[in-house]
Here is the input.
Amino acid sequence: MSAPLAPEEGRVLLTLARRAIARKLRQPVGELPELPFRLREALGVFVTLRRRADGELRGCIGYVEPRFPLAEGVAHAARAAAFEDSRFEPVRPDELDGLVIDVSVLGAPEPIAPDQVQVGVHGLILRHQGRTGLLLPQVPVEQGWDRIAFLEYACRKAGLPPGTWRQPEAQLLGFSAQVFEEEQASTRQGREGTSDE
Here is the structure.
């Protein structure tokens, strides 16, 4: 990502995410917002759905690699988070108003040493023996993990034994995220990955 997106660009992404889910549920969607030029840039993105009542995760899907222009990627990820996250039943029409949507726009993943990982700044991707685990940067903050716990949970996310991140052949990548939250319609750097959370 060349420069951070503006809050108003984030609001458009949040509108696109909610619109994509509503459309799939055959609910009214209103006008398509005008797309700022920056939202046509291909970037990695994740969409996270939480229940408004208790903050519980309801779905999280995304793309680490910039597979689509950002606006299109948000729509794909929102539908996938709502209807294809294997951890949850598909979102029902009566649930949509009770969901809060976050959009995380990802920076490019780069190799990172375990001692360089900063909680609240980096998301992690751990790859080893054909398995991959991904956690968004906000996850350890929300869970109260320190750096070691964050690394251990990346192993767990990949279905790998504890301490795998210490193996020389394990590949550890870090990335940043700019997170737009529907509740605040604002942005925060780096605190929040299936490709799920």
User: Anything to note?
Assistant: The radius of gyration is 16 Å.
